[in-house]
Model the fold of this input.
Amino acid sequence: MAEENITFTLPDLGEGLVEATVLEWQVAVGDTIGRNDPLVEVETTKSAVVIPSPKAGRVVELHAEEEQVVPVGDPLVTFAVEVEERAPQAGIVGRVPTEDAKPQRRVRLRPPTN
Amino acid sequence: MTELIEHTDAPADSRAVELSMQQAINRALRVLLEEDPDVLVFGEDVGALGGVFRVTDGLQKEFGDQRVFDTPLAESAIMGMAVGLAMNGWRPVPELQFDGFAYPAVDQIVNQVARMNYRTRGAAPMPITLRLPSFGGIQAPEHHGESLEALFAHTPGLKVVAPSDPAEAYSLLLQSVRSDDPVVYMEPKARYWDRRPVVLSEPTDPIGTSRIVRPGSHATLVAWGAMVHRCLQVAELAAEDGVDLEVLDLRWLKPIDAAGLAASVARTKRAVVVHEAPLTAGLGAEVATLITENCFRELAAPVQRVTGFDVPYPAGPLEPQYLPTIDRVLLAVQRTLEY
Done:
């Protein structure tokens, strides 16, 4: 499995809010977390909310300090996530076929008797 | 990509160069453009881009945009233009970018390309070779994995061919373009990246001949395009069980090599035909009939067919279940052995 870094930006937490203040990080760099685990508590002009993690992965970087104001769309956190190694893109569509080193089979044959 | 099985007839030849099927087709197009000033290569993205699969890479630069050129995204117009060019003495080699997009051009292909020579009593032959990237195996979206050989083989006036490896792709394309009859040349997309040492050679076998890619004695597997490779995998596995399978690459799907099929099956007494297209009214039915007509007394079991299913070609992730699997082919072989 290969790893790929994915950066999660602060989403619009509702009705066109433009920013939020980081109250408390609930993860630290190096933590391995699951999807939907609590990630960070932020406060908007409407309320304080806990944002769940959109990904399972390892936290690589936190882009904001606590008490910092983060505009919607700015980077919040970067994860290293495991990605399936995919075959290279074939062209405009499709993927280059990959082949098992040893083709897999379940059926066994019995040689003919006649 | 690991290549487990080498074709048994692959020569250990000092003239061999390592080429993918894409490159082999590209080399053949170069030869054809060089040898005959009437040859024209055109289609969507074949010029400046060099083709979505790099098959026409560099050709426009080398031969100019009067002989290698891009067309609008309009398949019927591409084939209609080929008809007009052919009537005026050119030798068109159009590409329709994907199998499923040949459907918009079926009117031109069936009503004009296939019939013009007959209609004009030979005054307007159609030396057109339609390059059609075909079949499945690359997890592409809808319309990019179709097998149209039965439709075109059923159309009087067309020849149909599907190469299975780079050397074959090279010589069969030379043969197709030099033919004064229209040929549908079906390129197995899944084998485009198949790299192997190949000796580029002039075609020696006549149009309409098949070839034995692996000799065997217990049953004949009949296939074309990418399924030849699948059958070679099956034959390799069957050998572990002491079953000796012959693999026949039909390659010409119109005209079909009835004599070659009969010669093989008369020896092995059993046959399994494998294709990607759906079962019903697929070319496997034609192959099975020809074998039965010619080998009725020799046959030890009914001819088996292993094919795609009678459903629209599925989305990418389901492709491995749709295409004939190793186990499905092995089971069909077992049915012929046990009959």
Summary: Chain A touches chain B at residues 90-112, 114 (CB under 8 Å).
